[in-house]
Amino acid sequence: MSENATLRMNIDLDDSVAGTVTDFCEYLNKIHLPVFRGIKRYDFRDYSIAYVMGWDRQEDQKYHTGFARSEYYNRINPYPGSVEGLQQVEQMLVPDLVTSRRIQRKKATVDWVGQNHPNIFGERVYVIGPAEGPLGSKAPFCRDKMYSIGVEDQIQHAVEMSRIGIFMVLLDSPWNQDFDDTL
Predict the structure, then answer these.
(1) How many whole angstroms from its chain centre is CA 133?
(2) CA-CA distance, 59 to 41, in Å (whole number)?
(3) pLDDT tens digits, one per residue of 133-142
(4) Which of 7, 21, 93, 139 has the fewest CB atoms within 10 Å, i.e. the most exposed one?
(5) What's the order of all strands across the beta sheet hosting 149-152?
(6) How confident is the model over 118-168, as pLDDT tens digits?
């Protein structure tokens, strides 16, 4: 991290620096083949299996839980170039990783980040999802941390954070194609 870095940046983990949905699809296609036949990242027009499959939102929790307990979860691939990109970012900014993953996944998440993005985040990995129930907004946490800039793949999080004054970079993802611009 640069000695002159004063601006703080929050960076999302899943589908921002880690190819989570792609690896989740691989898990679904191999482990749950009769249900999911050939599902791909671009099928996710919403960040939810329930939406993709036309199910009730709670139906997808059993698949998320299975994925989180599988070897696929611990070997999610980082996006190519993410390490080099983050090394460049930290020359100008202080990058923190902020994820809505559930708190039960904190150790696995911290271990994954340390293995795949070594010497970038250190202790600045924040797993802020509740143990159960709705994941909620990242905006209050990010406001309290006084971030100036953020990187996000979820339109809902990006809009909420931009409304509290954080400049957001929204990554191009299939689930961001059909949103209404409310800013």
Answers:
(1) 18
(2) 19
(3) 888 899 999 9
(4) 7
(5) 125-129, 93-102, 7-11, 149-152, 167-170
(6) 999 999 999 999 988 888 899 999 999 999 999 999 999 999 999 999 999
